[in-house]
Amino acid sequence: MSVTTTVSTEDPAGSEVRASLLNRLIVRPEIGSALGAVLVFVFFSVITEKFLSPLGVATWLDDASTLGIMAVAVALLMIGGEFDLSAGVMTASTALVTALLAVEAGWNVWPALLVSLLFALAVGALNGWLVMRTGLPSFIVTLGSFLALQGLNLGVTRLITDTVQVSGVRSADGYASAGWVFASTTDLGDARIQASVVWWIVLTALAGLVLVRTRFGNWIFAVGGSLASARAVGVPAVRTKIILFMTTAFAGWVVGSCNILRFASVQANQGVGLEFQYIIAAVVGGCLLTGGFGSVVGAAIGALIFGMARQGIVFARWDSDWFMLFLGVLLLAAVLVNNAFKKRAERVRR
Q: Transmembrane segments in this chain: where (predicted)?
């Protein structure tokens, strides 16, 4: 009598490892944007040869960099449960302050940059204080700041220069050293990488470390998830949100400084409308509009998708109007994917 023994080929330990790895990936907010970036990269790499050329890579990295700097700061603020509609116009305001002091008042560029930084931080602090003091939605408070800054930019620039543009920064003292910090280029083979790309990478890394490795990062998630609960456990909610608004203003200063020192001129209406692109990049990167969930690395990837798509459309010789259709579809898809990932992540954590 023979006995047949059936040996299972299944590996429970291996299945558990795979499940554990999958669960770790699912709870990462940036996983959707990473997959989207791969798809966009492969698509434009296939349909156009210029996309992967050194010049092409440098071009779409340059396009994404200033958007990415702002998207990272906006992502932190959105995770904290707030919005800043003055972020776009802030890039012009800080550039104008620097340019007016350096060109019209004859200041050295470095003190002019310092004053414009203090101006940005003051506006950011005021936005945060008003939101927390009045209880008004940040959408309303920063919309008021947006309109005030836009009017201030146009009015002051026209009053001083009789135009809506300031140029001539290259002739100011201190331009050479300041330009090296904010507007220099680095040659990597045949590619010329702008300083803004370096700023983007460094600020993304710093913001990512702060968000996931520090107590302040825990405070950001706490005030964005539930302000009342955060206060109940001792989180300094007012200080946290004011710092977040100041961080967004600081990012606006960095972008404004890169622009004015690179192009040596600034328009008073520059940056208007870009605040929505910053928010879209953050949402594509995994941030929820309701706060308490998101990733700064994802926001940086969202900006990269913007840069690749915008320049890929140009390289493919398509009508640039298609880019707005791409943004609309991308935003809707990102909201649906983010909600699905958040629900799955909540089930995994249980």
A: 31-48, 60-78, 85-103, 109-132, 139-160, 193-212, 219-237, 243-264, 276-309, 321-341
